[in-house]
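Slide 14.
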Amino acid sequence: MRKFTALMIASAIVMCTGCRANTSEGAGSLTDTSASAADTSTAPAETEKAPTEEPEKTSTAEENSTVSESGTSEKTPDGHFDIEMRSAIWRGVDSYFVFYPDGTGGCTMSFENGTGVAFEYEANPDGSTTFHMGAADNSINSVAVNNPDGTMSIEWSDGRTELFTPVNANAEEFTFYTNQELQYIALAYYQAETGYTPQYSGVRTNDGGTATIQLYDETDGHNSTSAWYTIDRVTLTGTDDISGNTVDMTAYADAAQQAYQ
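Slide 15: predicted structure.
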């Protein structure tokens, strides 16, 4: 688990110490990092699923979004992110963006492993915003579009559109678990519940601040799935996607430390 403290602008990739660890390949992908432990007993009855098959997912709330006054989407008039009135932390597609209160810069923190890039940014006269990601000469323009639900659609100059969701939390206290950490937590949870530890694990990042974790073994040339969980990466609560039961993995948060040993 990592905790956000003070972030310093740098011109290289940095570790943003503020979040619980996690590893992911972005929305819709399943990353197999083979976080596993030795088998401790005979495997229980397993449910067969293809490793890329999407389970039925139930997302838990990571945070509450601020609803904008307008009922329609509209571009911000000055191209500047109003972080002082809204949120200093925004969840993007594969990273959190932390904006410094002085309105000049910030740092990203990836869902994958918590590392990120320091950045600076400034508003332009045409209403766009230029970001300098990691270095002053690594620039990309963007246009922010305010959505009725309080999110922002960021139109990057390279053709991407990224949804930013505000995370209403104190930046100095905000924590999250990376995909890398979630795998160890899920393995510890499953072992405690069944007495058995699957060989492999994989993680897929979902919309809404959750991650889907697959625990499985390789048997006779195919994957034999033991568990699918969809877990909120902040609260460690979610759903067993096979049984439909709710799960709470907070008691196993210490297992996340194995991800960095």
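Speaker note: The chain has one helix and 16 strands.
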